[in-house]
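Revision sheet: structure tokens.
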Amino acid sequence: MMLTAPSTAKRQHDFATALLDPAQTLPDGLVGPDGQPSLKRFNVYRNNVVAGLTATLKDAFPAVARIVGEEFFLAMGRIYVALDPPTSPIMLDYGRGFPDFIETFEPAASLPYLADVARIERAWVEAYHAAEAEPVEARAFAAIKADDLPHLSVALHPSLRIVRSPFPALTIWQMNVADGQPAEVDISAGGEDILLLRPGADVEARALPPGAAAFIIALGKGRTMIDAMKQALEDSPRFDLPACLSGLMTAGAVIAFAIASGSGSK
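Predicted:
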């Protein structure tokens, strides 16, 4: 019976699996400079990899780290790294699933808003690295005929992100980034819908008025203005269409628009 050597792909898989699982033994065939296997050397390398990935998470989620403290964050990060290792060499994408992980992480259950703070931070990263686009000038939008407005559809800036939270997540996030000062927050006082956008060099985050998040999400799905407005009013009867449109244009959120065919526009 002839024994065949493991394929390169299998050896790489075994190596990557062992790196992120302390319970795994030293992969077969792995030796040090002296030609001998060394679990001690491998453990040093393993710890460096896990520490590097955890540091990447900390850089991407600074407010979460500040809220829970460094020791808690590092412990939480190590568990996440083991459960959800990178699938791409591009570290920008790493941590996409971290907010959902936090939501199910039992030791963080006493901070029910933490996952939404993480969602804001993830949305910020995505907005920062999104493609460039030139916003439509407000005067072009103002020239649209009133009869055409219900049939209008728009293209939103590629950096635009919406985060909806039943907690004051934006307020908490703002208190825990940059020069923010943590203060007492009543998490039962109501939620916040957040718009993140990078029309220029910097990402802007702002709270949205009632119904606006549902309206913007519908527009992003290609719905016409009238259909998006219906969605917004179902979400909140306090939705203010003129104020929302004005806010979107002022923020630079719209990069193109079109009138649906058959609208009756001349």
